[in-house]
Amino acid sequence: MTIDTGDGAALAFFLAVWLVYNIVTEHGPLAARGLSQAMNRQRECWMQVMLLRDLRMIDTAIMAGLQQGTAFFASACIFAIGGCFALFSSADQIATISAELPFHARLDRALVEIKLLGLVTIFAYAFFKFGWAYRLFNYCSILIGAIPMRAEADLDPDAAERALAKATRLNQLAGKHFNSGLRAVFFAIAYLGWFLGPTALVAATILVVVILAHRQFMSNARRALLD
Questions:
Q1: I need a surface site. Which of 73, 132, 149, 191 has the fewest CB within 10 A?
Q2: What is the Cα–Cα distance from 141 to 162, expressed in whole angstroms?
Q3: Which ranges does the record mark as transmembrane (predicted)?
């Protein structure tokens, strides 16, 4: 079975928009003005304040919260993958239901399975991102434990700054992979539009990108972080 021109073009548009959005928000000239970079600066501030604290139960509690949130989304992706595989047995029913929709031509079983396989791929990608982010947050917890206490840091400030820089960088990397996994989940929502046809996929992709771009560059959350 081959994908027709309309479906192929819509899928290519979806993948291209996802790739371009990743580049713009992580590596492009606008990246420094985004919400993610603003939060990275707050992560640096957090680590600097932590170095001045004698007791760090607050910091360990924050790390535990970050790990729990990441683990939740990783588990959700596993359930989503399982749900997609369960739908493979209902591919014929999905194709039959599509025939009753006034705005979509009838699907065949093979095309339904291809679309479900694509959804599985997206959730698998998100799971690997969340899994790696969880591991990096775990490593960051260890590095935070290795940061000298305040009295020791005063005796050797250079060593304390090096330890602080390592923990900060690893924390930022963990946040980056978590954001990538969460972004994949949002694009999975857009991908669901393909089950309604190529036009719906294009429209859903544009809608999701507009929402994500607004939150990244023009949201109240970003304005709250600006000095």
A1: 149
A2: 16
A3: 6-24, 72-89, 110-128, 185-213
Structure tokens at 181: 């996994």
Radius of gyration of the chain (CA): 22
- 123-160 pLDDT, tens digit per residue, is 999 999 999 999 999 999 999 988 888 788 778 888 88
CA pseudo-torsion sign 104, 108, 109, 113? negative
Residue carrying structure tokens 């339904």 = 112
State the average pLDDT for the chain: 87
Cα(68)–Cα(74) distance, integer angstroms: 10
Q: Report the predicted TM-score, pTM, of the whole model to 2 decimal places.
A: 0.88
Structure tokens at 202: 């294009």
Categorize the per-residue pLDDT at 183 as very low, low, confident or very high, splitting at 50, 70 and 90: very high
How far is it, in rounded angstroms, from Cα 66 to Cα 174?
A: 10
Q: Are 1 and 107 in contact (CB under 8 A)?
A: no
Angle, vertex CA 133, rays to CA 137 and CA 204, nearest 5 = 145
Which one, of 25, 65, 68, 50, lies nearest residue 168 by Cα? 50
